[in-house]
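# step 3/5: fold
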Amino acid sequence: MIPTALARHMPTFSATGLILGTLFFAAALTPSLVPRAGTLQGLLGGLSLAAGYGLGVLLRSGWQALQLPEPRGRLRWRLRTGLAALCAVIAALALWRAAHWQDGLRALMGLPPVETVHPFTIAGVAIAVFLLLYLLALLIRATGRVLARRLARHLPTPQAVLLAVVLTALIFWSIGNGLVVRSALATFDASYARLDALMDPESPRPEDPLKTGSPDSLIDWAGLGRQGRAFIADPPDAARIAELTGGDALEPLRVYVGLNSAADEEARAALALAELIRIGAFERSHLVIATPTGTGWVDPEGQQALELLMRGDVATVAVQYSYVASWIALLTEPRMGIETARAVFAAVYDYWRELDPETRPRLWLNGLSLGAFNSDLSHDQFQVIADPYDGALWAGPPFPSRTWSAVTRQRNPDTPAWLPRWRDGSVIRFTSQEDHLDAAEAPWGPFRIAYLQYASDAIVFFEPEALWRRPEWLVGPRGPDVSPDLRWIPVVTFLQLGIDVMTAVAPPLGHGHTYAFPHYLDAWAALTEEPGWSAEDLEALKARMAAEAGAGD
């Protein structure tokens, strides 16, 4: 028997909260957009259990406040016991079905099935997360009660309670935001900065004078950072392009300015322009402003597709604005990326627009993830309306992206949210794993934007409104890699998508937030209408690249 004194201090759980929390836990085991391992599934299950418990407590309190009738005595005990047993059975069935749900999603992404989802790991982690959150809630409640009692000595009780609630919220918000969040973000920033500074022995300083970081370059090799050095050193060169495309090729030009290359975004933009001029980038047929992700990474899948398609007759410039992952940069320093993108665009565009329109290169914007978000915000229509650039390819645009969100909302009514069509398709088109860029009512106009997005990309399709309403991309036909077992469940789907955002790069190439060479190649080909390429030529190039990737594995 538990001693009476100890029992008085043990927390008493709400039966209604536990019942609803268990249902939320079971619902969290259903598939979302990204396959989940056991530990991560347990984390999600614990968050869902806590959310359901809190909602159950709130509903119970509301019921009692309204003085609605309640079952009593033996009927109450039987009802609670029956509901608890039913919820336990549902949770057990969900744990049993979890492997089937995960395997169904994994099969859509070409992944092998899992032997088990480790149900005991899921349950153990979920209970630990729930108890941690529950104890935190008890601490918050106790703090509020202490403050209310002390304030009640000087204020009427209603005022004391209200002020106590406000003060408690401020105290824990200050602790969470100022101590926990900021400390974690500072640790992330320092870790990413150290990683960025690492010198990769496989990327020695180039000697070619046309390479950024070479002895002739205006930009120091060490200042490029790890991502910049990888971008400059990454193949293909002219010989490799000629081998893969079966014709003459030029050496593609790449300019990269690291975060440590200059003091601020204006200086880095000016340095990028000066380097472009130095290497003759404005003499190429195509010039691309590639806005990198939060870490400064430029997707090599898309860059290789661009350079192979152009047979090397292209120059690309990228300027770093952050060290950390895109989702962290978006939360902590969103202005830095926008201001850098605007400075780079203004510097390059203002120089480009003064050149002879007959001989200057075609100017394109490009970005993946946060790069697409910032690239979209790098200018406004009034800045370019008199002399527009040629267009943009934006891959995996985050859900708050300005143009993407507006066009998706205004899409043609007979098209799904994950693959919309907008008006006649002469300006903006969308594509996915299967090339849809030719499916438009009108031919391309002089200015054009292509969006490459996968239906399984949570960074694109997360939406806060999933907390209380079904996302539009779940209405109608599903995307090719979205599980037919995915169902919208209030609160739970929101939590699932939140976890999916943080693991969006876990799926293999061609799914989630990892974009593949063939799909980039189709997008660039449709966007630029580069001459000398037939559909058969493009498929042959894809096959050669796939064969080499397979041989490398």
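# step 4/5: annotate
Confidence is low (pLDDT under 50) at residues 5-10.
# step 5/5: archive (pending)
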